[in-house]
Amino acid sequence: MAHDIEINFDRPFAVFSLPHVMLLPHVVERLLVFEPRYRQMIEACIEEGGGALHAASPIAIASYAPKYWQGERVALGSCATTKEPALRRFVCVGKIFEHRRLDDGRHEVLVQGICRARIEAIEEAAAPRLYARAFLRPTESLHRHFGTIRALRMAILKHMEHGELRRSDAFHQIRDWLAQEKFPAELLLEQIGSLLANGDDQRYRLLAEPSLRERARFILSELATLDSTTRKAAARTPPPSDRGIGLN
Questions:
Q1: Where are the domains of the chain?
Q2: Is the pTM of this model over 0.85?
Q3: Partners of 32 in the beta sheet?
Q4: DSSP per residue over 58-75, as a string?
Q5: Which end of the chain, N or C, is more open, meaning fewer C-beta atoms within 10 Å of its C-beta?
Q6: How far apart are CA 99 and CA 194, in angstroms?
Q7: Could you read off the pLDDT of 53-88 as tens digits, one per residue?
Q8: Using CA atoms, how far apart are residues 188 and 49, in angstroms rounded to an integer?
Q9: What does the DSSP assignment read for 133-179?
Q10: Does CATH place domain 7-138 in 2.30.130.40?
């Protein structure tokens, strides 16, 4: 699991900059890597681990700051010398655990989120390195206790089992996990948060929030809103006719 992995924050991390917030801790995402700089980055990270994926260097998965963004920005070089958009300050440190090099030189990778971190300083790309690197500071401990937090699990299950959300296939697996206390509550919160986050800004809000309590409040609020919305929608849905046809 992610919290069993050691991360060395004394060295710079390769930065994979994406238009949107792609990765949260304990969540797995599949990425297709095609830009030359990021193809080089993937190859370098794997080579630094001697070719073994379990030893490959971790990557800082970052997101560009949109023009409307009012939060902290991190510039990638001087505005006079680069057209690269600024980054949002908080990133997810990820590890490659599955890799396939395609015939055309692209890479298909599965990346698992490990922990939240904050960009402290940027090292611009410098030949022959085509990609930027960053020094990071973790915003959460990798050695924190992953408890079951029974009251939180029960609060989440209340929404998922007794409302319209019980019909949702998207939450079926998570309902099963919640019922089994062997799965850490924080891992489940990240999975639920990834499903519930409505758009890029909400995903970044979850990424930038170091407090488990605050992330739990956000998730419970979103579940309550979703439950209420689906109840109202169900109440307004007419019953099927005798012929089995729903009336619109």
A1: 7-138, 150-236
A2: no
A3: 108
A4: PEEEEEBPPTT--S-EE-
A5: C
A6: 23
A7: 989 999 999 999 988 888 888 988 644 445 788 999
A8: 30
A9: EEEEEESS-TT------HHHHHHHHHHHHHSGGGG-GGGHHHHHHHT
A10: yes
